[in-house]
């Protein structure tokens, strides 16, 4: 629905750093698709709103969607660095951040629990989209008494400006790792994932030890704003892609006007397990020529041969177009559990052979051209 005048467009209000406000919104406070406004807080007093509005909201126009507003971001100095920040804080001297919010992302029928965790780093731990933070959970390493736990790496799920567009927070997408005894079927808390449970159980105000940022392989190449980016995720592997997509479609980044194609494939168990679906659905509505989104729901959909629909089955459905786009210079990214890659590689190999191509040669060319980006864990 196009708006005839800017005065009719509700403004997006980034929320300030008062952690007493409920500042994060997902399934319960859906982004409004009718009004095309980004609402990032369910209760907001007018004093905060007015002071933030004066200097934080920027409207950027795109050719196709002249009425889709973008959100103002600061500090724009985060665009100045020519190289990504790396290893600003090491394992022996981590940065102490503060938990802002922990929100359950999935519905009641999702197997397991996935949380969106916003951490305040005060602007002291800058990062770029596609990088990771290391988290050191509290307590002692059982394998090395007297020593802290090992660092766990988590892909960052926000842009460099964070979910409140002020450059002071980072968000993580964390699935709680729970161990069930195969004989009794009961949960064994002694074998649960230490770090994921610490993060999912944390409360606003809790402290968290952070290292990093790290990683260069998943950085978003921005030299060509009209490039094609094909993103393939399973589960929490969607984290870096959420950052990319917010940068492309939500934020008013003066130095990066995206006019290419972002194509996301997301594999999860069922509809209740979809992550950030409201956000991605809104991009589909606002930027139909620049965003495509294909979901693979393994417990709800069937593939062509009647089996469960995995993300590689969706890739196979669109394989001709994917290969053509790769031949045209598209970037392809994979993020998620490492078990996703063999099935995907087999599918790509089979498709290449059908096309009379050698997959090994094609893969080595994609790597050489820096079009192939993989981060699995």
Overview of the structural elements:
The protein has 8 helices and 11 strands. It has helices at residues 46-56, 194-201, 239-250, 277-286, 311-317, 319-327, 340-354, 359-368; strands at 95-104, 114-120, 132-136, 152-155, 169-175, 207-214, 228-234, 261-268, 291-297, 331-336, 372-376. It has a 6-stranded antiparallel β-sheet, covered by helices on one side. The chain has a 5-stranded parallel β-sheet with strand order 9-8-7-10-11, sandwiched between helices. The protein starts with 45 loop residues before the first helix and ends with a strand. The model is unreliable at 1-66 (pLDDT under 50). This is Ferredoxin--NADP reductase, chloroplastic. It is an enzyme of class 1 (oxidoreductase). It holds the Pfam family NAD_binding_1. It catalyses: 2 reduced [2Fe-2S]-[ferredoxin] + NADP(+) + H(+) = 2 oxidized [2Fe-2S]-[ferredoxin] + NADPH.
End-to-end separation in angstroms reads 41 Å
SSE-based structural type: alpha/beta
Instruction: Find the count of extended strands (DSSP E, 2+ residues).
Output: 11
Work out the radius of gyration: 21 Å
Overall pLDDT confidence: 85
* Helix amount: 10-25%
Across the major sheet, the strand order is 4-3-6-1-2-5
The multimeric state of the shown protein is single chain
Task: List low-pLDDT spans.
Answer: 1-66
- Overall geometry comes to globular
**Helix segment count?**
8
Biggest pleated sheet = 6 strands, antiparallel
Give the amount of beta strand, in percent: 15-25%
- What is the H-and-E element order? HEEEEEHEEHEHEHHEHHE
């Amino acid at each position: 629905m196009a708006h005839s005048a800017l005065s009719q467009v509700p403004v997006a209000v980034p929320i300030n750093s008062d952690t007493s406000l409920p500042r994060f919104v997902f399934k319960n406070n859906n982004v409004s698709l009718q009004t095309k406004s980004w609402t990032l807080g369910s209760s907001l007093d007018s004093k905060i709103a007015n002071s933030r509005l004066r200097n934080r909201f920027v409207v950027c126009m795109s050719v196709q969607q002249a009425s889709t507003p973008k959100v103002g971001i600061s500090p724009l100095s985060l665009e100045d660095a020519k190289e990504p920040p790396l290893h600003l804080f090491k394992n022996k001297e981590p940065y102490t951040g503060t938990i802002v919010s922990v929100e359950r992302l999935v519905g009641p029928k999702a197997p397991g629990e996935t949380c969106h965790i916003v951490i305040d780093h005060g602007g002291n731990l800058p990062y770029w989209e596609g990088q990771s933070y290391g988290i050191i959970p509290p307590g002692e390493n059982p394998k090395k008494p007297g020593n802290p736990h090992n660092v766990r790496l988590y892909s960052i799920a926000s842009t460099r400006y964070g979910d409140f567009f002020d450059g002071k927070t980072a968000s993580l997408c964390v699935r709680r790792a729970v161990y069930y005894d195969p004989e009794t079927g009961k949960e064994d808390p002694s074998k649960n994932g230490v770090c994921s449970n610490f993060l999912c159980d944390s409360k606003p105000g809790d402290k968290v030890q952070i290292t990093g940022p790290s990683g260069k392989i998943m950085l978003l190449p921005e030299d060509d704003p009209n490039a094609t980016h094909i993103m393939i995720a399973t589960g929490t592997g969607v984290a870096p892609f959420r950052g990319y997509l917010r940068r492309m479609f939500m934020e008013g980044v003066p130095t990066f006007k995206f006019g290419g194609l972002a194509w996301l494939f997301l594999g999860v168990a069922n509809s209740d397990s979809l992550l950030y679906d409201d956000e991605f659905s809104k991009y589909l509505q606002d930027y139909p020529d620049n965003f495509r989104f294909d979901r693979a729901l393994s417990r709800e959909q069937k593939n062509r041969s009647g089996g469960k629909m995995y993300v590689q089955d969706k890739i196979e459905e669109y394989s001709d177009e994917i290969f053509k786009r790769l031949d045209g210079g598209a970037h392809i990214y994979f993020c998620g559990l490492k078990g996703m890659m063999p099935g995907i590689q087999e599918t790509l190999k089979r498709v290449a052979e059908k096309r009379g191509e050698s997959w090994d040669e094609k893969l080595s060319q994609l790597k050489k051209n820096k079009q192939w980006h993989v981060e699995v864990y």
